[in-house]
Amino acid sequence: MPSNLKKNLLLKSACFIILFSAILLPATNGCISSTNNVSVVEVDCRKATLEYSIPNTPNITTKTSFCSDYMFRPNALGLAIKIFVKEYSNEFNMPEEKIWAMLSGLQIEVSAIPRTVHAAFDVDGKLLKGEVPVNGLALSKSHIWIEAKTSQIWSSALVHELIHVIIWRKNKVHGDPDHEGGQFSGWRKEHTIFIKKMKNILLDMEL
Q1: H or E stretch including 117?
Q2: Looking at the 3D structure of the chain, how many domains does it have?
Q3: pTM over cut 0.85
Q4: Which residues pair with 143 in a beta bridge?
Q5: Range list of H helices, the chain
Q6: For residue 159, which phi and psi values (nearest 5 degrees)?
Q7: Considering the domain boundaries, does residue 83 fall inside one?
Q8: pLDDT grade, residue 46 (50/70/90)?
Q9: Residue 20 has pLDDT above 70, yes or no
Q10: Which residues contact 38 (CB under 8 A, 6 or more apart)?
C-alpha cells in the first residue's frame, strides 16, 4: 500500500476516534459538583420569585438574601428536612409530628454571600468576639439564615440551625446559642454528634 494512502487512512481513523470520544465524554465545569444531583440553584428576582414553599412541609418557606443569589432547590430541601425529622425522631425519642410542629412556619433564608457577626459562641461554649464568620444563623425561632457553600445541602449549616429552632421552640426564650457551654440550656453533646451523622446521611444521598 502506498505510504500516502496509509497516512490518509491513519489520519481518518484518528479523526473518527477523537470525534467519537467527544460524543461519549460529557462536558465538565470546574464550578459544579460532579454529581448530577445538584441541590443548589442560581436565582434572579428579575426572572422568578425569590420565595418558595417547601413541598410536603407545614408552611416552611425558603428565599434568597439578594436579588441575584443562590438557594437550595425546594424539592431537595424538602427531602433533606424530611430525613432530618425522621432521624431526629429516632435519635431523641420524639414523635415526628411534634418535630414537624416545631418547624411549622419556618423561613429558611439562603445566600452564597458569607456573613459575619460581632460575637458568637463556638460549639464548646467559648465566646468569640470581633468579626466572626458564620455559615448559619438562627435569627429567631421562625427564621434561619444558611450559607450555600457548595452545590449540595449536606455541607451547609442547615441541620445545625434546625436543631437551634427546635430547642428555641422548646425553651421559648432562646435556642441555646452557646451550644455545649454552660450558660444556656438545651444543646447537648448528642446534638453535635447527630449533626455529623446527618451530614453523612445527606452526603450518601447526594443531597
Answers
A1: strand 115-121
A2: 1
A3: no
A4: 107, 140
A5: 3-24, 74-92, 96-103, 158-171, 189-204
A6: -60, -45
A7: yes
A8: confident
A9: no
A10: 32, 73, 151, 152
7 within domain boundaries: no
Write the CB contacts of 76 (distance below 8 Å, at least 6 apart in sequence).
37, 39, 153, 207
Q: Are 149 and 135 in contact (CB under 8 A)?
A: yes
Which triple of cell numbers denotes residue 156?
Answer: 451547609
Q: Average pLDDT in the 95-123 region?
A: 96
| Counts of helices then strands in the chain (DSSP H, E) | 5, 9
- The one-character DSSP state at 34 is S
The residue whose grid cell reads 425553651 is 171
Place of cell 441541590: 39
User: CA 124 to CA 186: how far, in whole Å?
Assistant: 13
Q: Can you give the residue range of the structural domain that contains 150?
A: 38-204
**In this structure, is residue 13 part of a structural domain?**
no
- The contacts of residue 109 (CB under 8 Å, 6+ apart) are 62, 63, 64, 65, 139, 143, 144, 145, 146
Residue 8 lies in a domain: no
